[in-house]
Amino acid sequence: MEVLEAESADEWESVVSGFFVPLRCDGFEASFRARMEHTVVDERLSISRVTECGLIAEHSGALRRRADTDDLHISLQLSSRGTVTQGGRSAAIVPGSVILYATNRPYRLDYSWPDQRHLILQLSRGSLDVPPGMLEAALARLALPQGRRAVAARNLFSYVEALPSADEAAHVTRDLARTMVRASLGEGAAVPRTSGGLRHAVQEHLRANAHDPAIDMDQVARRHLVSRRRLYQAFEQAGMSPASFLRAERLAMASRMLADPAERRTVEQIAYASGFDDPTTFTRAFRRGFGMTPRDWRARS
Predict the structure, then answer these.
(1) Has this prediction a pTM greater than 0.85?
(2) Low-confidence ranges of the chain (pLDDT < 50)
């Protein structure tokens, strides 16, 4: 990872133009500060965490002619507000927005609010393997839909946030990005193709629903449009099973509640709240996982 900082809009213009495409940046604060943590995953994919003061960044037609790129930017707005404009269309930016735009066309980013933070994926259009018509339809939206279809975006960015150093990282990131684009248009099954992508999507689902004692792996497989065998194969490649992952998540949830001094629920209530069918099974699993009973864990915390 490379870390770059700037103390003026001019310095920042040089930084972002070097790592993305040529941009003209105008700052709005006398004490301008900006920082980028930039990771190159492979020759067609990089990830940047950006923090900056309010500014406007523009990739004009003249600047575009100086850039030879087919890259796309997919950005998660962590605390940003403003607008993005491309191709005569504009979209509002708010925290949680996911923005998709092409770097081989003029665009304008109005980040004039203070405290802008984004997580940006820069990836080759050709490496995404999305039909051209579908990709153009997504680009026309600029801001991808929220709500039910946002699950695929959450899967992508949660993977990127904890990007593993494994050889499959670039392949899985592109797979999750492709899935997100398809999901944003309601096209196809919107299920990751790779084992790593499928495993991550299922892990996120299990993590979000670990409190539910009725989770069934056949149901999880159907939800992700794969067979039970395919589901287990995806997890076996990481040396685990879906059930063992779910149990670990439930135990981690319970351990946090037990260690929380503000938590007033009994051990039995915490057992049910963390997805276990009964306190006896919970205590047995907790002892195997942590080497002590839940009550001893609470007393030690």
Answers:
(1) yes
(2) none
The predicted structure's pLDDT at residue 61: 64
Residue 145: predicted pLDDT = 73
Query: Is 52 in the same domain as 178?
Result: yes
Please give the tally of structural domains in the chain.
2
pLDDT of residue 196: 94
Report pLDDT for 67: 57
Q: Residue 118: CB partners within 8 Å, gap ≥ 6?
A: 49, 50, 75, 76, 77, 78, 80
CATH number, residue 274: 1.10.10.60
Query: Which pairing describes strands 34-42 and 45-52: parallel, antiparallel, or unpaired?
Result: antiparallel
CA distance 191 to 245: 20
Q: What range defines the domain where residue 60 resides?
A: 2-190
Contacts (Cβ under 8 Å, ≥6 apart) of 7: 32, 33
pLDDT of residue 285: 96
Buried b (16+ CB within 10 A) or exposed e, 274-288: bbbeebeebbebbee
* CA 158/CA 210 separation, integer angstroms: 17
- Model pLDDT, residue 63: 52
Q: Are residues 266 and 184 both part of a single domain?
A: no
Does a structural domain hold residue 225? no
Edge-to-edge order in the sheet of strand 89-93:
24-27, 55-59, 107-111, 82-86, 89-93
Q: Do 149 and 289 fall into the same domain?
A: no
Torsion of CA 5, 77, 167, 232, to 10 degrees: 160
Residue 146: its pLDDT value, please?
A: 66
Looking at the fold, whether 178 and 256 belong to one and the same domain comes out as no
The verdict on 162 and 287 lying in the same domain is: no
